[in-house]
């Protein structure tokens, strides 16, 4: 056994400190993404509310208020899903991501006139991995909603979560204008940091048929 103060003891303390620093940076990364996502979603929500109330005739104001209330509730559900990761128990993938897709549709996509399709395979994942994948998928969906459909016609975003060849493959694809370099800016840096934290890789493709970004995470990571 290494004595405290010996070279080996110093190495153990250094490793412990490094691990603690890594955990701290990882948690800060998740917090930054949560706050980044909250800010962007609220911006989109505010724009949709202004649009609804600008267009609404007097008799339609109550309908606009009802739509706004539903979006606020959906946003609250979305934020809870993304932030409620204190329970270390394994998460059932299909119910979790189906709920996430429903909240994304109501809070982000429906106000922008964008349709959503989702195919989710069921299994279980550790809570930390599941919530980081959720943060990444939310970032990709919101990014597509903001940038892929300048004409606002016929927009469709498809979300797939499946196990393939010993890995989880989570894909967000749109039929929009086809971004040149689908991963950019602050969101890109946070995505890459989150991917690194769960040993995942990001793959992006863009063309005339739209943009497709996949997260590939080893199932046993």
What are the salient characteristics of this protein?
5-stranded mixed sheet, alpha+beta, 7 strands, Heat Shock Protein 90, phosphoprotein, disordered N terminus, 19% strand, 221 residues
Task: Give a structural overview.
The protein is built from 5 helices and 7 strands. The chain is an alpha+beta fold and 221 residues long. The protein has a single domain, classed as 2-Layer Sandwich (Heat Shock Protein 90). Strands 2-4-5-7-6 form a 5-stranded mixed sheet, with helices on one face. A two-stranded antiparallel ribbon has the order 1-3. Helix 1 packs antiparallel against helix 2. The N terminus is likely disordered. It is an enzyme of class 2 (transferase). Keywords: ATP-binding, Kinase, Nucleotide-binding, Phosphoprotein, Transferase. It catalyses: ATP + protein L-histidine = ADP + protein N-phospho-L-histidine. GO terms for molecular function: ATP binding; protein histidine kinase activity. InterPro entries: HATPase_C_sf, HATPase_dom, Sig_transdc_His_kin_sub2_dim/P.
Uncertain segments are: 1-7, 9-20
Can you tell me the CATH topology? Heat Shock Protein 90
Number of helices: 5
Q: Portion of residues in helices?
A: 55-70%
Taking all residues together, what is the mean pLDDT?
A: 76
Radius of gyration: 20 Å
- What is the topology, as strand order, of the major beta sheet? 2-4-5-7-6
Order of helices and strands: HHEHEEHEEHEE
Measured distance between first and last alpha carbons: 31 Å
Biggest beta sheet summary: 5 strands, mixed
Shape: globular
Given this structure, which CATH class is correct? Alpha Beta
Enzyme class: transferase
Keywords: ATP-binding, Kinase, Nucleotide-binding, Phosphoprotein, Transferase
Organism: Bradyrhizobium huanghuaihaiense
GO molecular function: ATP binding; protein histidine kinase activity
